[in-house]
Amino acid sequence: MKTVLISSLNQYVYCPKSAWLLFVAGERAESPHLLEGKMLHKRADSAEPSAPRKGVKQQRTVSLYSQQYGLSGIADVIEEVKGAVYPVEYKKGVDGDWLKDQVQLCAQALCIEEMRRLAAPIPFGYLYYAASKQRRKIALTKKLRAQTIQAIEAVRALLTTRHCPPVAFSEKCPECALYRVCLPQETERLKRAKPR
């Protein structure tokens, strides 16, 4: 079974074509958004643990894997309080209801559950959005778990195909680091053009 990177799930849910370009075609592109995100993770990874809240144990930059789901990746932070354990994922942007981030967080929880042989599923995790300095509690529901497993299977299938998924231009396209490679507007114009 081909191993799926946890971070690739975030990219796939954002846009399957950008995931294909990155993880199959090998395209590399940097954007100010990606560079800011990398800087945030470097600071979070190298920083001394912030003044821990009473009774909260933190582990930073934890390697994760799941043999059951064929996943590997890194958790920014794993917190433990009174025996309860949950992942915390750092994001550079503003707080929002972003499925891509929730799927990434849920995949981390699936790995932690397997690695620690937990008797019960992890009920929640947190997404920390640096731009808005908001920490959002995310319920790891059956629905989110099913969406995460579907994304894992879709990425695994994507990794073995030579066919680039189609894309429709949307408002998120200009913010994508691969916009100049993907050319979604130009691709749509070519599709609409009648053959001569």
UniProtKB/TrEMBL annotation:
Gene3D superfamilies: 3.90.320.10. Its EC number is 3.1.12.1. Mg(2+) or Mn(2+) required for ssDNA cleavage activity. Its cofactor is [4Fe-4S] cluster; iron-sulfur cluster; Mg(2+); Mn(2+). InterPro entries: Cas4_exonuclease, CRISPR-assoc_prot_Cas4, Dna2/Cas4_DUF83, PDDEXK-like_dom_sf. It is an enzyme of class 3 (hydrolase). Residues 7-183 form the DUF83 domain. One of its GO terms (molecular function) is exonuclease activity. It comes from the Bacteria. One of its GO terms (biological process) is defense response to virus. Keywords: Antiviral defense, Exonuclease, Hydrolase, Iron, Iron-sulfur, Manganese, Metal-binding, Nuclease. PANTHER family: CRISPR-ASSOCIATED EXONUCLEASE CAS4, DNA REPLICATION ATP-DEPENDENT HELICASE_NUCLEASE DNA2. CRISPR (clustered regularly interspaced short palindromic repeat) is an adaptive immune system that provides protection against mobile genetic elements (viruses, transposable elements and conjugative plasmids). CRISPR clusters contain sequences complementary to antecedent mobile elements and target invading nucleic acids. CRISPR clusters are transcribed and processed into CRISPR RNA (crRNA). NCBIfam families: cas4. Belongs to the CRISPR-associated exonuclease Cas4 family. This is CRISPR-associated exonuclease Cas4.
